[in-house]
Amino acid sequence: MLVRQLFDYETYTYTYLLGDTKNKVAAIIDPVDSQIDYYMQLLQEFGLELKAALDTHVHADHITALGSLRERTGTETYLGNPGDLDCADNPLQEGKDILIGDIKIEVLYTPGHTDDSYSFIVNDNGQQYAFTGDTLLIRGTGRTDFQNGNANTLYESLHKKLLKLDDTTIVYPGHDYKGWTQSTIGEERQYNPRLNICSKERFAEFMANLNLPNPKFMDVAVPANRSCGKN
Amino acid sequence: MLVRQLFDYETYTYTYLLGDTKNKVAAIIDPVDSQIDYYMQLLQEFGLELKAALDTHVHADHITALGSLRERTGTETYLGNPGDLDCADNPLQEGKDILIGDIKIEVLYTPGHTDDSYSFIVNDNGQQYAFTGDTLLIRGTGRTDFQNGNANTLYESLHKKLLKLDDTTIVYPGHDYKGWTQSTIGEERQYNPRLNICSKERFAEFMANLNLPNPKFMDVAVPANRSCGKN
Questions:
Q1: Beta bridge partners of residue A175, listed in sequence order
Q2: Could you report the per-residue pLDDT of B202-221, keeping only the tens digit for each?
Q3: Residue A105 resides in a domain
């Protein structure tokens, strides 16, 4: 399996291209609309047909490329809670794996940053990868103060789902703001300060006091992304 | 072996931390002075002692952390042509491997971007990595118009050294400006437009006509880096 991490400088967003090079098919996670020409270049160079474009959640900080990629490649699109977001061809659902050639993408429902946040788990040759969107960041987590975010729910998603993964699982997050590109579940378990807050109540209190400014593109991005970036 | 790619947003520089987790020792390639606290954090969290800080060349776009890391950790430093750059403890020399625990760093002299440009080759568990500095970039190469750069020499370094590596070798460059984090020798052989220029003369002509502005920190960075970032 080919795993390629790509980065959008303007919004600090990581995008992931997964390729089954034997069957010549690919999936892309959290694509950014302004980067679409680069994705098309890579797909063409690798000779891969895009079969799935997935967003971990409705993003507030960049415009998704789901709609544009569907137009350009005919890919299936995957986003959000069943019945809630009609722009995508397929709602995400925990337990309903997405199969792209030999790549099996397991879907975990990990709400808290938003109420439509999912993580994707992929195994390849004994190595497990967790694409955690904004649920689990490197030495951090997503915020919980908009889009029906909820600190209690995030705490549950982190401790009862993501931290149940093996320590060797590579964590590929949706963003990083200090230039770190990856982590592992074991590292985050040990060194992520927010995972070491000792109770759900203390975690909720901590999250309630972050007082972060809104993302600068939020007013444009959220409505656009609820239409797969195409409104 | 642990391989961790790190990124400095201000100068688009990739830094690489290599760790032998069994013997608890590490090497770092192309560290950036402003990021030193992050490197110290990672070394501490992984329980690694820094034994080698290496620059692929005297950089023109950022201040190296070689001197600062030596002060903070006592690490050995490695840089440039024998006898030419006295700030580093050890000159680099092709064929003179650097051993850090079980990690063997092979040194290739790959001049052309500058006359003191080296690449580092590391093998781990059947996977080969090439840390190519600014000699080979993803779908590009370093420029050749300052610091004794020479397009003919760069052409030789690319075609007679780096392209002799196996196609599956992962290419980890010194920079990328479009958010691509890695490549392979096979990909670059096939899709790097500058590697597909059909003669040394045409390549030199192409490089002579790039007309690039100087890097914005060049006047500060080059003299500072000739003193390991500590003048």
A1: A13
A2: 999 999 999 998 888 888 88
A3: yes
pLDDT per residue as tens digits for the range A57-77: 999 889 999 999 999 999 999
Window 62-101 of B: residues touching A by CB (8 A cutoff) are none
A30-52 pLDDT tens trace: 999 999 999 999 999 999 999 99
User: Looking at the 3D structure of chain A, how many domains does it have?
Assistant: 1
Give the pLDDT score at A82: 58
Do A181 and B5 make contact, defined as CB atoms within 8 angstroms?
Answer: yes
DSSP per residue, chain A: -EEEEEEETTTTEEEEEEEETTTTEEEEES-BGGGHHHHHHHHHHHT-EEEEEE-SS--SSS-BSHHHHHHHH--EEE-SSTTT-TTSSB---TT--EEETTEEEEEEE--SSSTT-EEEEEEETTEEEEEEETTEETTEE---SSTT--HHHHHHIIIIIGGGS-TTPEEEESB-SSSB--EEHHHHHHH-GGGG-SSHHHHHHHHHT--PPPPTTHHHHHHHHTTTT--
Residue in the block written with tokens 């300060």? A193
* Contact list, A35 vs chain B (CB under 8 Å): 179
Q: A69: domain range? A: 2-218
Taking the Cβ of residue B21 and every Cβ of chain A, the question of whether any pair is shorter than 8 Å is answered with: no
With an 8 Å Cβ cutoff, are B38 and A187 in contact? Answer: no
Contacts of A45 in chain B (CB under 8 A): 187, 190-191
In a domain, B67, yes or no: yes
Query: Per the domain annotation, does A138 fall within a domain?
Result: yes
Locate B162 and state its tokens: 């780096």
The two tokens of residue B102 are 């079980």
Mutate to test the interface with A, among B42, B170, B181 (most CBs of A within 10 A): B181
Instruction: Determine the residue of chain A that is closest to B190 in CA distance.
Output: A45
Residue of A191, A192, A195, A196 for testing the chain B interface, max B β-carbons within 10 Å: A191
For position A171, which CATH number holds?
3.60.15.10
SS3 call for B180: strand
B35 interaction partners in chain A (CB closer than 8 Å): 179
Neighboring chain A residues of B4 at a CB cutoff of 8 Å: 180-182
Residue written as token pair 């993408």: A105
**Domain-located, residue B223:** no
Lookup: tokens for B125 = 């568990």
Instruction: Give residue-wise pLDDT tens across range A115-171.
Output: 999 999 999 999 999 999 999 999 999 999 988 999 999 999 999 999 999 999 999
